[in-house]
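Molecular record:
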Amino acid sequence: SGSLFVSEYFSQSAQRLSFYSWYGNAKVFHFHVPEDTVLLRWLLQASRGKEPECTSMEVTVHFRYGAPPVINPLGTHFPANATVRPSYNISITLSSTVQNTTFVNITTPAAGDWFIAAHLPEAAGRIEVKGFSTPCAYMFQADMFVLRLTDMPVLEPGVAMPQTIVSPAKPLHVKVFVPKYAARMWLELRSCVTSEQKACAVRVVLGSITLPQSFQRIVTCTGNVNCSISLDSLPWEKWLQIMVESLGAANASVSLEILASFTDCRPGSTSSFLNFSSLNQSQAGSGPGSPTPPTGMALRNASDQRSFCLQSQPVVREDLDVVSVRYRLLNGPSVAVYSIFPTLLLLNLNSGMDSGGSLVVNLLLNKTSLSQANATVVACVSAASPVLSLNTTQNCSTAFFQGYPLSVSTSSVEAMLIVLYPQTDDWFLSLQLICPKGQSECNTAEAKVTVIAYLTPCFNDCGPYGQCSLLRRHGYLYAGCSCKAGWSGWSCTDDTKAQSVGAQNLATLLLTLSNLMFLPAIVVAVYRYYLVEASVYTYTMFFSTFYHACDQPGIAVMCIMDYDTLQYCDFLGSVVSIWVTILCMSRVKKILKYVLFVLGSLLIAMSLQLDRRGVWNMMGPCLFALVIMISAWVYHGVKRRHCYPSSWKRWVFYLLPGITLAFIAISVYAFMETNENYYYTHSIWHVLVAGSVAFLLPPRDKHKKPWAWSQKLTCRYQICQNDREELYAVT
């Protein structure tokens, strides 16, 4: 009745949503829920612009505790040995309304990191030129409200605590701290009476809600008899929330006593399975004695006395890089696994920055070390609490977590587990030897298992057809795979729509060899004495060829220099080629033309450095050059008093075909390219642009004679004549 609640509010800036093609398109929000929170409310706000291109849209929002949500909107395959559980998600529809506000309530949420990921439906795959169209802006913002109990009663183990539930609308909240090596907890409710002296009816909820799966234990206690609950494999060194609700009348209070007690699971030694016989003698009052190798009888005695129930192996966490950790066993890569005790390894993923990668656990059984040929080593990887009863339950579940099972035997000596985005917590690997005919035949058996465990940003570095990208949301880092060549999936292992090697080679050949269409333009330019223009076309052909050879997504790739350099040179050559071609068509004075060549090339180089993919970096120089060309043509026409160019053959056979090819090329480039057809639509762009250049180049100056190599290469004195027709005598 005297409980004090405090409300807190957490907000993050809105993010612009993207259509989904890989995990980098999902917008992630990271929140931290404080301890003793009894109510969590998410305020989700989705909005869209008011422009005509903004249509109805469905926003998918995923929730997860402890790590970013593992999602699969495209229905692709995950890598083998990866265990995936469906994410908890809701959909928010933006139809006629510009904004949609949704609330999501969670009672007794788990304290710690919570993540939200939001995205739009699957991307269409069309390549849009930046600046040609304005995509609609879909925004999403998540705010968090929490209601926290500031004076939550603490339940001390072994001490009965009297409490009163004022009414069903005000449940009782208490918490108890679970010590390390706690194997079991007994919770008992006794002396339960109501203010109306009627039969007591309460509901007990143990644990907190986690998403996508919640493992709360709910027990209903009725009558005046004592009610007890037993829990195995509790989360070590954490607060356990207990909520007791009254199921009686609205105005009736309930008085009861709550008692919690723990059973400890004391670990054995970490060096050569410790000398259990000496430890048992020490427990009986004898001296510890000198260390001796364990024997089957000593192990059986230890099992009978139940003094120790696990063997703990020391593990060193070695941080290698961002979201990259290696775990090393101090006693070597192999651990001894027995039947009577589980072998326990602690994998620390508690830094707060480890949940954005993939945890990989690999087990390898040494067949020669296994004395019982038909025995099996079962293992369980679990978060927060270890599984200590693999020999009896074998279901790899703890009190509030469903673990991931593994097993190795003589028929299958290797096992691997991949946990995608493991939640922030202490993770445990439990191993135990199981015999099919009973544990009695396994008492003296032993197995050597090599354990390799590590945390990596992307499993297998996304393979040969993917790129591992490190993503960031404020100070939180996580990794994702961007796939190519038609491959898909979380780690780019789904080859459902993958390009064959032949298709990859064909794409590379089309995109590179299509640049050879610049050869006719180069020949025409050289023949007509446009040597500067020919040099620019040669530059463009060279760098476009090798840029596309380096830009390929598959295995048919060849990079002669840095990718970014090749891309920049390709873009620069393309725009400068258009610039010099239009200026050449304008037929301005040579000195002015070459000044514009140099000045324009410098300005184009600067603009491409600012924004390489902006449409105005190409359209700007083109339009300016067209203005110069049209002005020059008008000037020539007015001066000569007839249309310029004056020849109808020039218009019909050269200008109109060249302009048509150029317009078709721009249409293909701007409106037809997609990720699937890029290799042939962009090859068509190469052919059309190069062809239009060959048609549009003007004829050579009248005073220029055709190339005549035999006359040029002479070795005798001759009379020279210049353009001014002045004679010079050579003496």
Q: What stands out?
A: The first helix runs from residue 276 to 284. The two ends are 123 Å apart (CA to CA).
